[in-house]
Structure formats: structure tokens, C-alpha cells
Amino acid sequence: MRVLTGSDHPMHAHTVIAVYRPRPGQQAGLDALMKKHLENLRSWGMATDAPAVLLKSKHDGSYLEIFDWVSKEVVDAAHHDPRVLAMWDAFGKVCDYVTLKDLHEGAEMFASFERIEL
Predict the structure, then answer these.
(1) Of 42, 44, 63, 67, which has the most beta carbons under 10 Å away?
(2) Is residue 107 part of a domain?
């Protein structure tokens, strides 16, 4: 095994796993936002073009989104960018941000999810 660098993976990219749990009755709203999330971050120069992985919990419809920010500094700057804050506010209306340990699958030895393509 090797760590991806160079042309395989941007050197300073910051890989994250974000988990979004839909609020009751809000799955469709979350689905709609997920379709634009990475597209927006990429168009603003904040996320890399590296392929992302999107998984969905079979238990509660939570999404796991694995993607690369351009850098840790960009992540920090995103917390002050009005476009990102507006997008995160929209997410906050339809989902809760949770951690991996909050997922039902987190207790499973080999967690299984549906792979999603938006």
C-alpha cells in the first residue's frame, strides 16, 4: 500500500468523511442538496476533482460523503465564506451533522452501505 500523492492525489488535499442524517420527512430535501454539494464546492475552487464516494445508510438514510478539500486552509476559510455558510445553513434545515460512531453501521464489524451516484 502507498499514500496517494502527486498526480494520483493533490499533495495538500484534505480528505474528509462527512455524515448527514436526514431529519424526519426531509430525505428528499437532503437528496436535492447532495446533488449540488460537491459541484458547488468545486466551482468555488474548494474541493478537488478527485472522485468522491457517496454512501447511504440502509438503516436511516444517512449519507456518508468522502471527498477532498483542496487543503486544510481552504476548509478553515470555508467557515467564513458566505456561499458555503448559506449552503451549510440549507443542509442544517434538512439534516443533522453526525459522526461515524452515531451510525447504526458503526457497531458492525464490516459496515455495509448502499453506494450512491448522484
Answers:
(1) 63
(2) no
Q: Is residue 111 part of a domain?
A: no
pLDDT in tens, 18-28: 999 999 999 99
| Helical (H) or strand (E) element with 103 | none
CATH at residue 51: 3.30.70.100
Residue 113: which of 51, 37, 36, 61 has the closest Cα? Answer: 61
Measure the CA–CA gap between 47 and 45, rounded to whole angstroms: 6
Residue labelled with grid coordinates 461515524? 100
Q: What is the pTM of this model?
A: 0.84
Q: What is the arrangement of strands in the sheet containing 95-98, beginning at the earlier edge strand? A: 95-98, 14-22, 63-69, 53-56, 114-115
Q: Residue 117's pLDDT is what? A: 86
